[in-house]
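does this look right to u?? zinc ion version
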Amino acid sequence: VAARTATASPASSSRAVVMTSYQVGPAASNRASCKGCKAKIDKGALRVGTVTPGPGDYDVTSWRHLECQKHPKNLTSLDELAGFSGLDAVDKAKVEAWFNNSGVGAKKRSADEVESVAQLNPKKMKAAEMKKTLKANGIDATGSKDELQGKVQETVKRAAAEAHYMKMTVPQLKAVLEANTQLKGGAKQELLDRCVDGKVYGALPRCPQCGGGVLRVVYPSQTGHGGQGKFSCPGYYDDDHFVRCNFKAEHVERLPWVEP
Ligand SMILES: [Zn+2]
Ligand SMILES: [Zn+2]
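got this back:
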């Protein structure tokens, strides 16, 4: 036992200093969903993977659309971005623009940007302005004027929620999630995304089948889903015993979101 402890402790302390790493590339399939907007990532779409050490010996990669991923502060060079050198010229240019526009010192600007989107009134905007806004927010900018207006309205609502939660600290975000019985794990960006999603579409309910898991959702599109999509139950831990659950649904009632 002593020998095991002796070998285990340097391994776990070296694990603690392992930095998160990032990778980029076109999605190989349309099976993964974006941790940011929770929509499916279409096959071929540029996505960024955040690689963190998992609970065992393996790493966990969470994916986001390029547009849904803020440039991480600890990514200081594109040489550190796995997969970048293998991209084609068009994708390289997109990733370079992403890297340069949301790089060091962008935190303040992006808060201002979010705030300015939150102030927009789509009813007073021309189609061209609405398209520009949607593109800048990484949302498909096609459709009739009514459709564009609906998309901008939703973008404004999301930006207002984001502006609200961006000012909060991690413990404050966790308190909001706690008050709504939502999952509290993850990095700050994930907590923020979860709060924005809940404020705009309502809280995710507990599983009606097992009563223990909080449902997760994958949206069929970035906008216009109204908080509905493919729901499933991740199961839950009952003390130290994991309870599996196979609950799936296409429609569940989202619960009123509360501010503690
Ligand atoms: Zn996304
Ligand atoms: Zn369940």
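The chain has three domains: 2-104, 121-167, 170-260. idk if thats expected tbh
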